[in-house]
Amino acid sequence: MKSYKLTPLDELHLEKKKLREERAISGQRLSYQIQYLADNWGSMLTKGVTTSIKNKFSETVDNLSYGSSSSV
Fold it and tell me: Whole-prediction pTM value?
C-alpha cells in the first residue's frame, strides 16, 4: 500500500489555506463582538455607572452606620 506524502510546497499551501480560514473565522468573531458593543454600549455604560454609584452609596451608608454606633 502506497501512502501519499505531501511535498514541502504542498504543505505550505495547506498551512496557508488553514491560516486564511482561521483568519476569516477570527475576523467574523471580532466583527460580531464589535457589533455587540455597538448595539449595547449604552446599557453597559448605564450598568457600570449604576453599580459604581450603588457601591459608593453603600460604602457611605456603612461608614455613617459604623460612625454613629461607635460614638454612642
Answer: 0.57
